[in-house]
Design a protein that fits this description.
The complex is a heterotrimer of chains A (367), B (201) and C (632). Chain A has helices at residues 7-14, 52-56, 64-72, 95-100, 106-117, 143-147, 159-169, 180-191, 215-223, 257-261, 300-311, 322-347, 360-366, and strands at 33-36, 39-42, 62-63, 86-92, 122-127, 136-140, 174-178, 201-207, 231-235, 243-248, 251-256, 281-285, 293-297, 315-319, 356-357. The mean pLDDT of chain A is 92. Chain A has an 8-stranded mixed sheet, with helices on both faces. In chain A, strands 9-10-11 form a 3-stranded antiparallel sheet. A two-stranded antiparallel ribbon of chain A has the order 1-2. Chain A has 367 residues and is an alpha/beta fold. Chain C is an alpha/beta fold and 632 residues long. Chain C folds into 4 domains: 3-189 and 201-225, Rossmann fold (3-Layer(aba) Sandwich), CATH 3.40.50.970; 231-348, Rossmann fold (3-Layer(aba) Sandwich), CATH 3.40.50; 382-561, Rossmann fold (3-Layer(aba) Sandwich), CATH 3.40.50.970; 565-630, Alpha-Beta Plaits. The mean pLDDT of chain C is 95. Classes of the chains: A alpha/beta (367), B alpha/beta (201), C alpha/beta (632).
Chain lengths: 367, 201, 632
């Protein structure tokens, strides 16, 4: 979709409004836009009236239904969860993977498997706690590197900048793991009229996400309290725990989740997507079952891969019980309602949802 | 000896880095050998970094001249760069000024950045022709080649033109005194090429 | 062999004004010479240093002008002859010492040469340093020709010894950097030895010493009355007299000739400008009714002449004075023959037209069609990369941070060459000085990050006290030291961090980062050519408060390219996407290195082989990898 706008509008409508998700889709395309930590800025206006940056950005106007049709060939049957073929529970069979992973290890297992099969040559991943708090973009070419990127981190980093860098150099198929905003941007790139290498991404795994933390504030909060170079793992256990758990080399600390709310990126408040609705495969946690992941299979290619993985003993799957499914739907719906609320507050107009171009019908479902 | 016009005013102009100063040093030293009073006025410093530069060289048998040629009083202009040659003529030229110019442009950064346009060289030479009666164009390199010691080559053209009452031998003597032995050969060759170039027109 | 060392008394050679001054010092048998580089004075000590070993005297590049003057004064107090050279701002820097050494007096001849820069061709301000002579009650000489530059300097040492005061010589750019005929005299054998005796103490019996100073100055004035550096030419007993000094002499003479007034007016040329040779002047003005004062820059001579006229009103009667105060000549900028001729013509009711009116009109029209030529950083200059990194880091930071600038090649960062980053520019050390003040405004709701840039030479010259102040007073400031290995703007002279001295011998290195560590501030050293890394580091350092120093170390490429074989750099036209989204002519249009041209016909970028120095930074920045660097 050619938008007819460029870096000036990107700056005005997204960056200066605090709506940037730090996905990195606009970075490494040209010398004018840079990212450091999770801060994205237009260093110098490029002088062009329209360009890729605005087109790729997940916070510029996006026709959701059209995107659904392009990716999945259909309108979404489920307003709350998007298009999917099945939703199950899954875990990696390999103990090594599971012990390293945050929950079920499914993402690591599937990426490694796809690589071993030769379906992708590399995976663009995010490695947390790489000597500090800020995660770094990694291009993994073999399984140990994939495993090195396991575990959650709650800071959005510019994964797509890493992807943009690598698709300039590689011609083979690659895989990407990302948050819902990053997956949205990636799909916008794939359907864009602007030439780019995103079509080389053959496996898109999206993670569930409720919000992400802003690096600077979170960093300042933690650094006064512990040595950040020793962090091994961050975790937010399900309610009613209401805490953030920080595992370090020298022990574990807990912080009230309330204290974190101030560090949530403002842009997360208008995010419409909890389950990475545009991915091939979406993966999240299973409340109460630390060893398992919720697995959403959205595309036929994904289904084929997962079936093979099942058969080859890479992963094990089980049906997801009704209660959990309902809960998932509810949670996703709640995020959408909050997003619409937040958007209407910003624009003062029920019809203007900034980046969300929804049909009249769709919109009314959430108001 | 006497000069046809006393003082004789010469301006060598170009862009910072083109070697204006060395060129003026050579012709001035050559002039002193002939018993002339010579004054050379330069612009140094910030202008060296890509800005416009000019050397005012004034010859007299009567007295030391001030280092700046008054408006419209340039008798000869040697332009190491075409736009700079024209710029100098607009301030210091008159219809009788004799111009020797290299047609190879050096683009100012504002032109490189698209904020200003560099006129086609033919247009620049045409405008020069509007303001002065005589313009001699001297190429400082063959097509596609990189010019070597263009400033000294242009001094050769000046020497060969006969416009200054200084024999070629004095120019070469001055070069021997000023240049290091390492640089002398290349520069003498360039100088002689310039002499040849202006004589074959 | 350097032109300075030519041992042929009576021979006429072509010399730069500065070389003539240096030669004058040599002919006076100078023992000790110091300076801090500054346009238009740098060549004085530079040329002396080249022959110092041969003649057996001392030459030094000092950390700043104050230290230079103090070191030279030490030589003088020990009975040696010493010369100090500086640009106009230098005399501001050493003014405190100047205003105390005038009271203590000196012993061996001490000459300090100040190079003013009218129109600020290479300076951040314009000033008339002659005012310092009057302020400090010191004798002042103003050479008007290249010959005088030499002869006055030689004589100044003798004068200084006779009156026991430092003697000031004031030159201007047009004299210092122009070349002309100079007849050489003998270079004497030197046999002085240094010994300190007595005491030279200001601060005690100051009013008495001040009175003594005035007496010494009067002694100088008596010498000036009969000086060969003052003369009168033109019509005897003329009613219209031009009174001039310095560069005004040659312009006045030529203006008079251009208007055909040789037989009508007189020109009174003063070389001993302060104190005025009063009797000499009065003698030549007995028949005068109108004066035109011609000088650069301030109406210094004019005002002093007017005081003299007021005092001598009974003897001279009323005299109309034209000059800067009457608006006939400007009290700013430099002068030239045209300005003097126009003033003369205006006063005398004559017509002065340099050229035919129509021709001049057409010429002006054509001039407007020509693209302007702004100075920029040299191809390969590390400052381009450094300022781009600073720009990016401040933009990413997003709090409207800005840069306080300082004096050096990087001063060009006020303009497009440095992406308009420098928002303040004053004098040496003012960058960190201002920044450390801005950094204390937090309690007034000031939240903009401030970056102070300064060069390596500037760091030693003036920035250290500002940095210490920042630390001592807990200011929030990021200082970026642009270390390119030398004092680049003035010709790459060595400084305490360079490793060589004025004579090219190895010298101890004082390390900038060690000084910073000793002050107790965080310091990082990076190569600005690694641009992305530099941006990230700067951004990180901007996040927290306190004092931080980033040293961007990369040798001036003009120097480096002379020492190494130049790699071939060219653009692969297949890969260059030029105008398209993803590039939009970044290298030629934004990065602005003069070695990169936009080929309008091919619509691709192109490297100008003559201008390019092969640094390769453009290749790292090209988003398409279209620029190729081939070693050797």
């Amino acid at each position: 979709m050619k938008a007819g706008k460029g870096s000036l509008e990107l700056e005005k409508e997204v960056l200066n409004e605090g709506l940037c998700t730090s996905c990195g889709a606009c970075v490494e395309i040209c010398p004018y836009i840079k990212v450091v930590k999770d801060r994205v800025a237009v260093i110098e206006p490029c002088g062009l009236a329209e360009g890729k940056c605005y087109d790729f950005c997940p916070r510029t106007p996006t026709d959701i239904a059209a995107l659904d049709r392009r990716i999945f060939g259909q309108e979404r049957p489920d307003s709350s969860l998007g298009s999917y073929i099945s939703i199950e529970m899954a875990q990696a069979r390999d103990n090594k993977i599971r012990s390293r992973a945050q929950y079920g290890g499914v993402v690591s297992a599937l990426m490694t498997y796809a690589m071993d099969l030769g379906e992708i040559g590399a995976a663009v991943l995010t490695r947390p706690f790489d000597g500090g708090l800020m995660p770094t973009s990694v291009v993994a070419e073999e399984s140990s590197q994939v495993l090195g990127c396991a575990t959650s981190n709650y800071i959005a980093s510019a994964t797509l900048a890493g992807m943009n860098k690598v698709i300039k150099q590689r011609r083979d198929a690659i895989g990407v793991v990302g948050l819902p905003c990053q997956i949205l941007a990636l799909r916008k790139m794939q359907v864009s009229e602007h030439e780019n290498g995103a079509m080389g991404v053959k496996l898109v795994i999206g993670l569930f996400c409720t919000w992400a933390l802003s690096y600077k504030e979170f960093y300042r909060f933690l650094r006064g309290r512990l040595d950040l170079s020793l962090i091994k793992r961050l975790d937010i256990p399900p309610p009613p725990a209401n805490i953030l758990v920080v595992d370090t080399e020298t022990g574990t600390m807990e912080f009230p989740l309330e204290d974190m709310r101030g560090f949530i990126k403002p842009t997360c408040g208008i995010c419409f997507d909890m389950t990475s609705e545009f991915a091939d495969i979406s993966v999240g946690m299973v409340e109460g079952m630390d060893d398992w992941n919720t697995l959403m299979i959205r595309t036929p290619e994904a289904e084929r891969l997962i079936e093979k993985a099942r058969q080859d003993g890479i992963i094990e799957t089980r049906p997801l019980d009704e209660a959990r499914l309902t809960h998932l739907r509810e949670a996703s719906l709640q995020k959408k309602r909050r997003a619409i609320d937040d958007l209407v507050k910003r624009t003062g107009d029920e019809r203007n949802l900034l980046y969300l171009l929804l049909s009249e019908e769709e919109r009314r479902k959430f108001l | 000896m006497a000069l046809e016009k006393d003082p004789l005013n010469l301006i060598i102009t170009g862009v910072g880095g083109q070697g204006n100063v060395l060129a003026s040093h050579i012709v001035a030293s050559a002039g002193i050998r002939e018993g002339l009073y010579v004054t050379v006025g330069e612009t140094y410093g910030a202008s060296q970094r890509g800005g416009a530069v000019m050397s005012h060289v004034r010859f007299s048998f009567q007295a030391q001249c001030s280092p700046l040629i008054p408006e419209g009083q340039a008798d000869i202009v040697v332009g190491l760069e075409p736009v700079e040659a024209l710029r100098i003529i607009t301030d210091f030229g008159n219809p009788k000024t004799k111009v020797i110019v290299s047609p190879r442009p050096v683009y100012p950064v504002w032109v490189l950045s698209g904020q200003a346009k560099y006129p086609p060289v033919e247009e620049v030479l045409g405008k020069l022709g509007e303001l002065v009666d005589e313009v001699q164009v001297v190429e400082t390199a063959e097509e596609g080649e990189v010019p070597m010691a263009a400033n000294v080559l242009m001094m050769g053209a000046l020497a060969g033109s006969g416009l200054v009452p200084i024999p070629i031998g004095s120019f070469e003597e001055a070069m021997r005194e000023i240049l290091s032995p390492r640089d002398l050969e290349t520069n003498l060759r360039a100088f002689r090429k310039g002499v040849e170039a202006i004589r074959t027109g | 062999m350097s032109i300075l060392a030519i041992d042929q008394p009576g021979r006429s050679v072509l010399m730069m004004g500065n070389e003539a001054i240096a030669r004058g010092a040599l002919e006076a048998g100078v023992d000790f010479s110091t300076a801090y580089p500054g346009t238009p004075s740098s060549e004085i000590i530079e040329s002396l240093a080249r022959v110092a070993e041969h003649f057996g005297f001392y030459a030094e590049w000092s950390t700043n002008e104050m230290v230079a003057l103090e070191a030279a004064a030490a030589a003088s107090l020990s009975g040696l002859r010493a010369i100090v050279a500086m640009k106009q701002n230098g005399v501001n820097v050493c003014s405190d010492f100047l205003l105390t050494v005038n009271l203590t007096g000196t012993k061996g001849g001490l000459v300090f040469v100040v190079g003013d820069d009218p129109s600020a061709i290479s300076s951040s301000n314009e000033q008339d340093s002659r005012n310092f002579a009057r302020f400090a009650d010191l004798p002042l000489l103003e050479p008007a020709t290249f010959q005088e530059a030499k002869d006055m300097t030689r004589w100044a040492f003798e004068l200084s010894e006779r009156v026991g005061l430092p003697c000031m010589i004031r030159s201007v750019t047009r004299l210092s950097h122009s070349r002309g005929n100079v007849k050489l005299a003998e270079i004497p054998q030197r046999s002085r030895s240094a010994r300190f005796e007595g005491s030279y103490i200001a601060g005690v019996f100051v009013p008495i010493k001040h009175a003594e100073l005035h007496q010494k100055l009067e002694q100088a004035r008596e010498e000036f009355e009969g000086s060969e550096f003052n003369w009168y030419v033109g019509r005897e007993g003329a009613r219209f007299v031009i009174v001039t000094s310095g560069s005004g002499w040659l312009y006045s003479r030529e203006a008079v000739a251009a208007l055909g007034l040789d037989g009508e007016v007189g020109i009174l040329k003063i070389g001993t400008t302060w104190p005025l040779p009063e009797s000499f002047i009065v003698d030549h003005l007995r028949q005068a009714t109108e004066l035109l004062i011609v000088e650069e820059v301030d109406p210094f001579l004019e005002q002093n002449i007017k005081i003299l006229l007021a005092e001598q009103a009974k003897t001279l009667g009323p005299i109309e004075v034209y000059g800067a105060r009457s608006g006939h000549l400007p009290a700013f900028g430099d002068i030239n023959q045209d300005k003097v001729a126009r003033a003369l013509a205006d006063i005398r009711g004559l017509e002065y037209r340099a050229r035919d009116e129509q021709y001049a009109q057409r010429a002006s029209e054509l001039a407007l069609t020509l693209p302007p030529r702004m100075p920029t950083f040299c191809p390969g200059c590390p400052h381009r990369a450094s300022l781009w990194a600073i720009k990016a880091a401040l933009k990413l930071d997003g709090r409207d941070g800005f840069v306080a600038g300082d004096i050096g090649c990087y001063s060009l960062g006020v303009g497009p060459a440095g992406f308009w980053q420098l928002k303040t520019l004053h004098c040496m050390g003012a960058g960190i000085g201002l920044a450390n003040g801005f950094g204390k405004l937090g309690q007034f709701a000031f939240d903009q990050p401030v970056v102070a840039v300064c060069g390596d030479s500037t760091f030693f010259h003036a920035a250290i006290p500002g940095l210490i102040n920042a630390r001592f007073n807990n200011s929030n400031v990021l200082m970026v030291v642009l270390d390119n290995g030398g004092t680049a703007m003035t010709g790459f002279q060595p400084h305490p961090g360079s490793g060589t001295d004025a004579l090219g011998r190895p010298a101890p290195v004082v390390e900038i980062e060690e000084i910073c560590k000793a002050i107790g501030v965080e310091v990082r050293v990076r190569d600005p050519f690694e641009v992305d890394r530099a941006i990230e580091d700067l951004y990180d350092m901007l996040q927290d408060g306190g004092v931080k120093v980033m040293v961007f170390r990369r040798k001036c490429f003009l120097i480096e390219s002379r020492e190494k074989a130049k790699p071939k750099v060219f653009v692969d036209p297949e890969k260059c996407i030029g105008d398209e989204c993803g590039c939009a002519r970044f290298c030629s249009r934004v990065f602005n290195c003069p070695g990169i041209i936009w080929d309008q016909d091919a619509e691709k970028a192109k490297i100008d082989e003559v201008v390019c120095t092969g640094c390769g930074v453009c290749a790292t920045l090209c988003p398409q990898g279209a620029i190729v660097v081939e070693e050797g």
